[in-house]
Design brief:
Rossmann fold, 12 strands
Length: about 300
């Protein structure tokens, strides 16, 4: 028997469907997880609080496979997992629907200046005209990081007749590579960022990139806050070079209440809520986990296995 330590949040989606060779040990809180860590050969530690989820693998000496529904994994102990031969799978593709819908929401909020409509309602004021008049129809979007989330964004934008160009680490016909997209920034009305957080993507959008973007264009970040130089962003929005920004992620998180980014007009901060804007997270992640259990038992490669050297 193989022991798997799993959150109670997944129990309703897994119980009665797990293979006979697996012994599940369910935890309902942080203390129960800590007590079970020495037994864990397969660990799915989400649900005990993010800090403990990240720290837990170092206290699980028998761990062979770590699973998470988080897509970003830069805060996990990747070197420890690599040194101890632990396979690591993440949630790539599990949150793509919710995050992609948030991306379209962000574009519409920026295009229609919907925040001004909400503020007018708060004031019980009837606006005489629409504050935002941009239509998505006929605009151009650059998706930097066309993985599962980026591809879902592209699919949702198709009915709006937005022309989408993708950026990937490995270029392909019609796709820009990592050394090509900066020279094309001036062509796009929207830049959607969904790259993993690595040393290569740290501050990949700064003063030079914002200056190269189309005047009045907007950037939307669903990657990590570290991907954008926030000081340069505030300057670009403040000068009017950028029309606005929609930030689901910031640096740091939570963003301190006195941080100037909160007061920057036309910058929308959504507190890393996009992936949480659903009720199916554990259900979808459980379906992936069941698939991977079959692969694991058969000695086959797992879905969404993290490259522990690359960090995604």
């Amino acid at each position: 028997m193989t022991t798997a330590v799993i959150s109670q949040h997944a129990r309703a989606h897994l119980e009665g469907r797990l293979p006979e060779w697996l012994e599940p040990r369910w935890f309902a809180n942080a203390d129960e997880l800590r007590a079970l860590l020495p037994e864990a050969e397969i660990g799915w530690f989400d649900g005990a609080g993010y800090g403990l989820t990240i720290a837990a693998p170092k206290s699980a000496p028998r761990l062979k496979w770590l699973n998470t529904f988080s897509a970003g994994v830069e805060e996990f102990p990747l070197a420890h997992l690599r040194d101890h031969g632990v396979i690591f799978t993440n949630g790539a593709g599990v949150n793509d629907i919710a995050v992609a819908e948030y991306a379209v929401l962000g574009m519409l909020v920026l295009a229609k200046k919907y925040h001004e409509v909400v503020r007018a309602q708060d004031r019980s004021e009837w606006l005489p005209d629409a504050p935002g008049k941009i239509e998505l129809h006929g605009t151009k979007a650059l998706i930097v990081g066309a993985g599962a989330i980026g591809k879902r964004v592209a699919a949702l934008l198709a009915p709006f007749h937005v022309e989408v160009t993708e950026v990937r680490r490995r270029p392909a016909p019609g796709v820009l590579g990592p050394d090509e997209w900066r020279a094309r920034l001036g062509e796009f009305d929207w830049v959607v960022v969904a790259v993993p957080a690595t040393s290569d993507t740290n501050a990949m959008f700064g003063e030079a990139e914002f200056a190269a973007m189309k005047p009045g264009s907007s950037i939307l970040n669903f990657a990590r806050g570290s991907v954008i130089d926030q000081t340069a962003l505030m300057a670009a929005v403040g000068s009017g070079q950028l029309g606005g920004a929609f930030l689901d992620v910031t640096d740091p998180e939570p963003l301190p209440s006195d941080h100037p980014l909160w007061k920057c007009e036309n910058v929308h901060i959504t507190q890393h809520l996009s992936g949480r804007s659903q009720t199916a997270l554990f259900k979808r992640a459980s379906e992936r986990f069941l698939e991977n259990l079959a692969h694991w038992h058969a000695g086959e490669p797992l879905i969404a296995q993290v490259d522990l050297d690359l960090g995604y």
